[in-house]
Amino acid sequence: MYNSLPIEKYMFIHNFLPHPDHRSRARLLSHKALLVYNVLLILFFAFTHYVPKIYPGILGYASDIKISELLNLTNKKRATAGLSELNINNELSRAAYKKAQDMFAKDYWAHVSPDGKEPWDFILTEKYDYSYAGENLAKNFNTSREVVEAWFSSPSHKDNLLSKNYDEIGFAVVNGTLDGYKTTLVVQMFGRPRTPSYLAKVNEGSINEKILESAKEESVVENSAELPKSLETESNGNLFTLSYVSFPSVIDVSAAQKVVGLTFGGFITGLFALDVWYSKKKAIPKFTGHTLAHLSILAITVIGIWLALSPGKIL
Fold it and tell me: Residue 300 — very low, low, confident or very high, per pLDDT cuts 50/70/90?
């Protein structure tokens, strides 16, 4: 007996393509499926937002940021603008390091600490008597170039990078836990001393790699108040590297966010493209306002999570 019904084993195709007889969307774009996607995305957002509050340090942002690169990229921006290079200053670097440590210790992300301590207080504590001073902050970035480009794209931070009022600069790149997440804070401090000082230039390749190797062999230092002596390296009297090694995070939020965002976005975009193409080919009318509402909710959810979890913030 001849059966005109589709062979059952081929029905899986309608998970991806509309059904011409039922005139319905693909099952993976159905109202029920869209609701499931929204729930899963909300759960993903809740996990990445609340878990660090309960179990600090589980989630984090992996980074490969080097002070030599930050200095080089900053001076390249200044050179392009026809400005003189900035030179590393020991006191500014120490002030930057202690500002980063203060943010970790008091769990805040701001130019002014909860107890009212301003960037200039850290600078003056290091006995750097300035006529002009400035500060740029960054966190959750992956590379040195991303940090400098983000600063350069912001008018206020760009003003610091390209200011004619500064001759010297200090950096700190410090790992720790902030707001429940393991992250890397970058502090950039600018200055011009009241009394002209000898401005020593630091070569990009002058970092003592043995310093970093010895740091890996030592106990991990978290949020210590004092500058780890083993992590100091001098070049012409100026402190060049201020950072320390921390334990790796269990989950890298940046990588997870990108994988989830790109995978899910590509999956939905592909399904929707197939749906439109097949619907036109088979003349299947089913594009209703109800479906549009579900797709709108889904799009808003994806955008919200992307903005909330996107790595890289400057201040």
Answer: low
- Give every CB contact of residue 239 below 8 A, 6+ residues apart in sequence: 88, 90, 93, 94, 170, 232, 233
Burial class (CB in 10 A: 0-12, 13-18, 19+), 196: exposed
Report the alpha-carbon distance of residue 31 to residue 29 in Å, rounded. 7
Distances in Å between the Cα of 218 and the Cα atoms of 213, 230, 231, 303 are 9, 9, 11, 42
Q: Which two tokens stand for residue 295?
A: 């797709």
Contact yes or no for 151/134 (Cβ under 8 A): no
Confidence of residue 56 (pLDDT cuts 50, 70, 90): confident
Q: What angle separates helix 31-54 from helix 253-282, to the nearest 10 degrees?
A: 180
Residue type at 103? Answer: M
If one compares 296 and 258, the residue with the highest pLDDT of the two is: 258
Cα torsion 78, 144, 213, 250 to 10°: value is: 160
Contacts of 51 (CB under 8 A, 6+ apart): 58, 59, 180
**Is residue 211 exposed (0-12), middle (13-18) or buried (19+ Cβ within 10 Å)?**
middle
Rounded Cα–Cα distance for residues 69 and 94 (Å) = 18
Residue 92 · residue 126 · CB < 8 Å: yes
- pTM for the full predicted model: 0.69
